[in-house]
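Record type: monomer structure entry
Structure origin: computed from sequence
Chain ID: A
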Amino acid sequence: MRGARIRPSSNRRAAERSLVRAFAAFTHAADSLEKAYAQLQLEVSRLGGELERTNAELTQSLEETTRVRSFLAQVLEALPFGVLVFDASGQLQLFGRKRNMIVTEEG
């Protein structure tokens, strides 16, 4: 039987087709994951930049608040009369050095 070819069995051909389909599905899934990862990296980069800007703004705001509070404390201490500052709930928040001119002991 010279020159006769042996054909693969139908089971082997079915297995090869199944393997080709599985490899195609794997390749498609890998491509989808790579695209999703690239999008995720872009989002992380964007959020990192946004966080950095917000942090810088908060730092600047905190520094300004600290300067204003220090200035206010200096003004309160320099006034020749007593000053008391209450919040909306009636709690004493700030007072000047001469507060004793205002506050008297209750007897």
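Annotation 1: The longest strand covers residues 92-95.
Annotation 2: The longest helix spans residues 10-78.
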